[in-house]
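Structure first, sequence second, as always.
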C-alpha cells in the first residue's frame, strides 16, 4: 500500500493505492491516523475485488431508510447523536428491505401514509461496538406522504428531534449531517428520475 496526496487546499485527500487487498488493520489505521485530513480515496485497478475483500473484514448490518417529502416538499430530518440524520434502521428477520425502510420511518417519526417513489441507492459506514467492527449497509428510498402533522421523535432510539425542513433551510442542516446522509442528497440531485423533486407530490 502507498499513501499519497491528491488535490489541493480544502479538496485535499489521501489516496490509498493498493493492488488486490488492504493491509492488516493495525498498520493501516496507524498510517491513516497520522494523516491530518482524515479523508481518503482507495485507488486500485480491480475495484470489485478490493471492495469484496474489504467487506469480508466486517459483519454486514443491513438497514433501510427514507428521504421523505411532505405535500409541500419539505424534508423529514431527525437529530441524533449530535448530527442531523434521516430515519433508518436495521432489517428484521424475514422482512424485505422496502418494508424495513417504511417501518423505520413510521417508528422513528410517527409519520403515516408513506409511499415509495423509487430507490436512491446504498451507503456504507463503519460502526464500532466494543471490540467489534461492523459495516452498515443502508438502502435508501425516496418517499412521499400527505401526512401534515408534526413528526414525533422516538426518544428511546436516541432521537432528540424530528422536523419537517424547508428546502431553503436544508443546506445549514446538511452542514451538520452525517457524511452518509449528505451522500443520499447527492444521489437525489444526480438521479434524473427525480428532477424537480420538490414537485414530486404532484406526480
Amino acid at each position: 500500500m502507498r499513501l499519497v496526496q491528491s488535490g489541493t487546499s480544502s479538496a485535499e485527500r489521501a489516496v490509498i493505492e493498493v493492488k488486490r487487498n488492504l493491509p492488516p488493520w493495525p498498520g493501516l489505521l496507524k498510517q491513516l491516523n497520522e494523516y491530518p485530513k482524515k479523508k481518503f480515496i482507495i485507488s486500485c485497478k480491480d475495484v470489485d475485488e478490493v471492495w469484496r475483500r474489504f467487506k469480508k473484514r466486517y459483519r454486514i448490518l443491513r438497514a433501510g431508510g427514507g428521504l421523505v417529502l411532505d405535500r409541500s416538499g419539505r424534508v423529514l430530518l431527525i437529530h441524533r447523536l449530535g448530527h442531523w440524520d434521516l430515519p433508518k434502521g436495521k432489517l428484521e428477520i424475514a422482512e424485505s428491505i422496502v418494508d424495513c425502510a417504511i417501518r423505520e420511518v413510521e417508528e422513528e417519526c410517527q409519520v403515516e401514509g408513506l409511499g415509495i417513489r423509487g430507490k436512491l441507492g446504498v451507503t456504507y459506514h463503519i460502526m464500532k461496538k466494543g471490540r467489534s467492527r461492523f459495516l452498515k449497509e443502508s438502502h435508501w428510498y425516496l418517499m412521499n406522504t400527505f401526512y401534515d402533522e408534526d413528526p414525533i421523535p422516538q426518544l428511546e432510539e436516541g432521537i432528540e428531534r424530528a422536523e419537517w425542513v424547508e428546502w431553503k433551510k436544508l443546506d445549514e442542516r446538511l452542514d451538520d449531517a452525517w457524511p452518509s446522509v449528505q451522500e443520499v442528497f447527492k444521489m437525489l440531485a444526480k438521479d434524473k428520475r427525480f428532477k424537480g423533486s420538490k414537485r414530486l407530490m404532484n406526480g
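Margin note: The CA atoms of residues 77 and 86 lie 5 Å apart.
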